[in-house]
Known about the structure:
- The structure holds two protein chains of two kinds.
- By secondary structure, chain A is mainly alpha-helical.
- Chain A has two domains: 14-67, no CATH class; 83-289, MetI-like (MetI-like fold).
- Chain A has helices at 14-42, 46-51, 64-72, 83-113, 119-128, 135-148, 154-163, 166-178, 182-190, 195-203, 208-224, 227-232, 239-248, 256-289.
- The two termini of chain A are 16 Å apart.
- Chain B has helices at 2-43, 60-67, 69-100, 107-115, 122-132, 139-145, 162-187, 191-199, 204-215, 217-233, 236-241, 253-263, 267-296.
- In chain B, α10 runs antiparallel to α13.
- The longest helix of chain B is centred in the N-terminal third of the chain and has 42 residues, at 2-43.
- The model of chain B has no long low-confidence stretch (mean pLDDT 88).
- Chains A and B meet through α1, α4, α5, α6 and α8 of A and α1, α3, α4, α5 and α6 of B.
Amino acid sequence: MSAVSQDTAVNTGRIARTFIYLLLLLFALFYLLPLYVMVVNSLKPLSEVTGGNMMALPQTWTLEAWKSAWSTAQIGVSPTGLEPYFLNSILMVVPAVAISTVIGALNGYVLTKWRFRYDTIVFGLMLFSCFIPFQIVLIPMAMVLGKLGLAGTVPGLVLVHVVYGIGFTTLYYRNYYATFPTELVRAAQIDGAGFFRIFWRILLPISGPITVVSVIWQFTNIWNDFLFGVSFGGTSQPMTAALNNLVQSSTGVKEYNVHFAGAIIAALPTLFVYIVAGRYFVRGLMAGSVKG
Amino acid sequence: MASSAEADLRTRIQDWLPKIVLAPSFAVTLLFVYGFILFTVFLSFTGSKMLPNYTIVGWENYRKLWALENWHIAIVNIGIFASLYIVICTALGLMLAIFLDQKIRGEGVLRPIYLYPMALSFIVTGTAWKWFLDPGIGLEHVMQLWGWESFSFTWIKDNNMAIYTIVIAAVWQTSGFVMAMFLAGLRGIDNEILKAAQIDGASSFQLYRRIVIPMLRPAFLSSFVILSHLAIKSYDLVIALTGGGPGRATEMPATFMYSYTFTRNQMGIGAASAVIMLMTIAAIMVPYLYAELKEKS
């Protein structure tokens, strides 16, 4: 995306440019406003949130709301804070991302370099599975997880996310490997290299950019998932479900500052990943989705 | 002899290896996606209540579903939500992309600001906007504190307007992503074409309307597909922002399906609503995916 040099042919006058800058800044404010409100109010004592101005900076800066959200806030029936749920999310997201990415890479390799009859149909069926509304699989999935004894467990959630994640990872690696010359693979084959050796020695070393895309995509999707978490999480609910419990709880005083702190804690991992590697993600994603 | 037979076996294993590697994924997809879809379709024709029950009741669940007022509310809401969400995201995304493409100083700062909401979960977005739009502590309160005493913004508590607050929050979350897709499309257009048109006397406005926007067709198509798919699946945002309320004012097919299946013990009706959601998405996705795959292979 940034490699293409930008030299727009359109000339704009000074008034038009001022207008454009103003508009762009206005929208920057629109996108930043909710984040600003969350951060500022999470650093206030509750009385200042309910009695004061939401836009104002804190008069008394305090981390109490953060501590409460992390370790003592009432989530559902027990005052555990978000900490155990944060750990559930980590335990769920790491294996789910790793497994689905490895499977996607192998699938993409087979579908581009070892093509066979009807491989497009196989891929088409896997691709469509990315776009189904998950409501259509909720009931049978709940039954199967129950039968396997995985209902309400972290391994159960890992299984669900791997199953419904391989469509996307396969798509990414397939589109990426498709641009790699197949002649090189054939040449290596003639030299006696086998299936896995070719993958390990030839394809894997060039897979960095697409692995970044696949990992970020899977990480944000799985970390941010709510439907599966709330349906199958049981006692091992992930962060999103816990945050929703915290915010929706109808008992007692609404501790807005704690809700805001909790929301930021829930958003931190994906924001962090986005800030560190976001540009690679957008670049890789665009290469696959806009072309063609 | 023996060694050549052994070599023969090895080549045969090598020949089969790619299919062996792919097979588990394909089997899992067939079972967990297509098998489950068939099972849910089957359930939608049974009298399942709290638990699955295998007595066939024909089209009964579909008849009941379309007679339910809640389902009508959900259908009207998804119509309002999806059309506004898709149109506004596309218009806003296109506008921001075109403006950002005018050799803007600070593009590197603005782009991530527009994009970061897509890293957040809908639950976080919903929580932020829920309190921001809350009349008691949010925007209305702030405006009044700043001296605009008569300012009133109570959409989130208003049966008729609450659905539009979901549009606002959803647009906030996704429009930056649409912007990025259009920006990538714009950067892919050959500037020579634009320069030639300009020499022929086209104004900037004409240039965009006649040449640039038609050339962005693939980006329009991809964003339409992504946005409509997100709209129909929208569950988390509704739950976090309004919880389907006030009353049932922001019920959507996704929240309807969940509550009928898991809390109201009407699994047959819930399954029927899920089947309708799937068919709607399939009507959009299947032609698109078919065209994509055909073109590439």
